[in-house]
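Handout, page 2. Input:
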Amino acid sequence: MIALRAAAARLTLTLGAALLVGCGSLALDVPVPPLPVAGLQPNVGFVAADPGAPQPTEADLRWWTRFDDPQLADSVERALDGDPAIAISRERIVQAQAFLGSARAQRAPQVSAGAAVFVERGFGSPDRSVAPLLELGLDWDLDLWGGKHQAERSAAALLLRSEDLLQARRLASAGLAARASIELREAQRDAQLLGAALAVQSQLLEVAQVRVDVGLAPQLDAERALADQAATQADAASAAVRIRQARAALLVLAGEPVSTLPPLTVAAADPQAAAVRLPSLQGALPVARPLDLVRLRPDLRAAEQALLATAADVGVARAALYPSLRLPGTLLLATGAGLLDQVTSAIALVLDANLYDGGARQADVDAVRSRLREATLIYRQTLLQALQQIDAALVASAGTQRRIAALQRAVEASQAALAQAITLYEAGLSGQLDVLDARRLALEQQRDLARAEADAARHAVALFEATGLIERPPRPPPENAAGEVARSG
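Output:
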């Protein structure tokens, strides 16, 4: 009897293996929609690009070191090391790896084991029998239509998407830290200019008061100088707020508390202090071609992986429409009197078909197909935004350079006009309004020049972000942080 069961089991296994080999021809292939980037030509550049502009190099992957400001580079490095958002993205990669492992395990045979002990004792009899029982179970979904294979493909694509989203988060954190550092330098420069202006205004106020006291000028001149000084003090207070906010932003990006910052203060101008320099990019800006952009931008790669994952989900939903084929089996081992006296095995092929579900599974297919179309549109939208961002950064950078050159000439002229106006006023050859107008114009030109230089640095950062330039971090060790925490506990 046992031999017949074994032969039947071998026959069933043979049939299952034959069906399993033939499953590949039944798998449902889901075509991926053509990517919108397919129409881009390799040698097509941007309209705003300089034909002689260099292509990105390895050095551009650490673009923050190309600025002549060590504080900016240090701020970006601290953000990349301590930003909680980057740590969150890393944990999502760990989760995606676990989901992929689970999807792969679903394709393998599922083996279970159980044990029991039966104790029998007759009524009124002191004798009893003990019968241990061991059971081994097998359940193998033969994946007739490739649904589990498509689920594994989806999980693999989502893992790659998580890695690309980590890169996108790192790029965003680097950009935020660089801009906060530029804002800090700009606010410090503004505070320095306003402090120097206040020193000049104090001198003008003293001169105006002397002229009023000796009867050479009306009290109106002193009131005008005092009002002009108060307006500059208000701007200085605003600059101090911007300095404090920029420092707080840098601390948060580095994962540090803002409580370590000192209280808000408006520092007096130090005539001996060196002029605060705005960060400036060393060398030319790199310009990527459209196809280079596809390979570099992490958000575009993430959108592509999301599209591939959704296409695989369509295959999962379609496979659920058709019958499933499973290979369940059991093996029972029973002993008596310390010897193996009974072996029972059973194995079968089970065809499971859903005859009527009210259209629920077809609705699932329709929903996933709509998600696939949505993912295609998101990919196209991301691509168009990437092209627009690069074009905008290039145009703004070129315009800012011309603006800086013009403002430098304006600053030189306004400074000369201010010096001449002060000399004429002190000699009594001009009115106070001429001095106030000249001083106000000189200060505005200096502040505009500082803003233009800060804008040039910001546009450079924006171009690096738009091209997706950032180095890839080293791959984490095989054992993740969660496993280390579990072992330490």
